[in-house]
């Protein structure tokens, strides 16, 4: 099937003017979201803001589902925007991974937006609701642009739009802590952007191109004579995108931003915003530089070290937190460590698991943040010690939290376990058996901060004394997005073989 796909790529590259209607979908999804971002702010009626926003996100999800089916049936394709083909025109390259991640992003965003319709006004002022949805429309458009683009400069532009929109959904709460966290994120992200731009400039100086395909062709020809520039540009991309992707120790903006933002914003930031730069990094590594050049440098070893440190230190910091949202935020640093760890292993299975864990973490962490948001909303408590016995008052919400936490810990069948198991096999494949100890230690640390919340939430006479069964539960219709996210998360584990097989068809491997 991979050979068939690559053949189709060649065919579509050479006959790019023959546009299949279904190949318009990636561009249309971005255009629809951007048009929505213009329409939503002018709506006066709050109900219309909710309805239009939900309708747009639903439409984009359906279109991305059709796009994935199209790629599975007809193979990967390239789509030229405008009259000029690469290297002069803007080109989208839609591979299996792009299609899967596009569908993932639109699905998770749809679930979060659906949930936010019942809770957002309890966290932000009513007059800011349309502002919040406008930014989310713009944010998803830019994230899809990062995923689909085949041009590093356009990828950079989409990256910047996503950063500004992400800052906006942090400050939507309009509190001093949010503004301070957003400024911290903006300053550090701007530093990351500067480094990425310098990396692009270095590549342009030696290749004269911005198209990923053309840069790669030139780099292959001149790799021997440009080793220093290649290494410097690789480091610039790694550090720049590492800041945006919360790679340890460049993650320092994340805990404040994720913990102080409104709960739907926290879920979007953790599930989507920090994932897009990693996909962009993988594309640059394997489509711009190529496997042979990347493996000839120290960059994968650096990623492996930082990923390992993130897996351990992110969990150590999470264990020390007293506030629930802040603990979940540090947990994201640890989970991003698994993704960088997988890329850093440098073998096929490691890279496969990095992509799979992006999917697994997106559905799991969005569910966790929304469950925590529900608990805080219903109880008013933010600290872990204050929510003992919450399992009696909010049994369904804590059950959703527990399933997601089990996945993070690595309980069998759930997606977190699939990632850890295969990352262990990938580590054995490299001959670096000591890496197994890092995965094991990280899993134990995960258990050390998730299990006490679950145990104290459901058990203990002192914890449950005076609590009334389901007294603080939200209606099922309000919990439905969380329930769907949890079901999809479980299915991601059960059908991991099919998902991994589909990822493997991507041209990165």
Automatic annotation (TrEMBL):
Its main location: membrane. The chain crosses the membrane at residues 24-43, 55-79, 99-118, 130-150, 156-173, 185-206, 229-254, 266-286, 298-318, 327-345, 351-376, 396-418, 433-459, 479-500. Belongs to the CPA3 antiporters (TC 2.A.63) subunit D family. InterPro entries: CPA3_Na-H_Antiporter_D (IPR050586), ND/Mrp_TM (IPR001750). It is found in: Cell membrane; Membrane. It comes from Helicovermis profundi. Residues 151-445 form the NADH:quinone oxidoreductase/Mrp antiporter transmembrane domain. Pfam families: Proton_antipo_M. This is Monovalent cation/H+ antiporter subunit D family protein. GO terms for cellular component: plasma membrane. Keywords: Cell membrane, Membrane, Transmembrane, Transmembrane helix. It is a multi-pass membrane protein. PANTHER family: NA(+)_H(+) ANTIPORTER SUBUNIT D1, NADH DEHYDROGENASE.
């Amino acid at each position: 099937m991979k050979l068939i796909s690559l053949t189709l790529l060649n065919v579509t590259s050479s006959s790019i003017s023959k546009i299949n209607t279904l190949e318009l979908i990636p561009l249309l999804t971005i255009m629809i979201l951007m048009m929505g971002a213009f329409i939503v702010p002018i709506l006066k009626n709050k109900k219309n803001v909710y309805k239009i926003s939900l309708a747009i996100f639903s439409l984009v999800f359906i279109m991305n589902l059709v796009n994935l089916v199209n790629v599975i049936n007809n193979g990967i394709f390239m789509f030229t925007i405008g009259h000029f083909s690469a290297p002069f025109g803007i080109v989208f390259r839609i591979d299996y991974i792009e299609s899967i991640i596009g569908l993932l992003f639109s699905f998770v965003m749809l679930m979060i937006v659906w949930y936010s319709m019942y809770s957002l006004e309890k966290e932000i002022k009513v007059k800011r609701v349309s502002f919040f949805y406008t930014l989310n429309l713009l944010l998803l458009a830019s994230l899809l642009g990062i995923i689909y683009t085949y041009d590093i400069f356009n990828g950079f532009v989409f990256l910047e739009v996503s950063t500004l929109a992400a800052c906006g959904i942090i400050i939507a709460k309009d509190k001093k802590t949010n503004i301070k966290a957003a400024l911290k994120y903006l300053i550090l992200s701007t530093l990351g952007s500067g480094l990425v731009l310098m990396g692009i400039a270095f590549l342009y100086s030696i290749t004269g191109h911005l198209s990923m395909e053309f840069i790669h062709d030139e780099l292959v020809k001149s790799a021997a004579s440009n080793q220093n520039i290649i290494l410097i540009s690789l480091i610039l991309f790694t550090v720049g995108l590492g800041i945006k992707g919360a790679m340890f120790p460049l993650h320092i903006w994340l805990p404040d931003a994720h913990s102080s933002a409104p709960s739907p914003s926290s879920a979007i930031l953790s599930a989507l915003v920090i994932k897009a730069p990693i996909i962009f990094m993988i594309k640059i590594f394997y489509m711009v530089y190529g496997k042979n050049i990347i493996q000839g440098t120290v960059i994968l070893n650096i990623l492996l070290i930082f990923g390992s440190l993130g897996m351990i230190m992110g969990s150590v910091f999470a264990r020390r937190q007293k506030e629930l949202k802040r603990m979940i935020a540090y947990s994201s640093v640890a989970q991003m460590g698994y993704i960088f760890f997988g890329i850093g292993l440098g073998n096929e299975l490691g890279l496969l698991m990095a992509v799979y864990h992006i999917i697994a973490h997106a559905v799991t962490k969005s569910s966790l943040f929304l469950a925590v948001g529900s608990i805080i909303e219903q109880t008013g408590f933010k600290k872990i010690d204050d929510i003992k016995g919450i399992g009696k008052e909010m049994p369904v919400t804590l059950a959703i939290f527990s399933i997601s936490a089990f996945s993070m810990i690595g309980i069998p069948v759930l997606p977190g376990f699939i990632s850890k198991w295969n990352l262990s096999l990938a580590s054995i494949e490299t001959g670096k058996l000591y890496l197994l100890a890092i995965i094991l230690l990280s899993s134990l640390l995960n258990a050390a901060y998730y299990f006490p919340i679950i145990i104290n939430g459901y058990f203990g006479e002192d914890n449950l004394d005076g609590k009334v069964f389901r007294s603080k539960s939200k209606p099922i219709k309000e919990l439905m997005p969380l329930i769907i996210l949890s079901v999809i998360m479980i299915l991601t584990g059960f059908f991991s073989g099919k998902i991994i097989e589909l990822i493997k068809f991507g041209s990165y491997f």
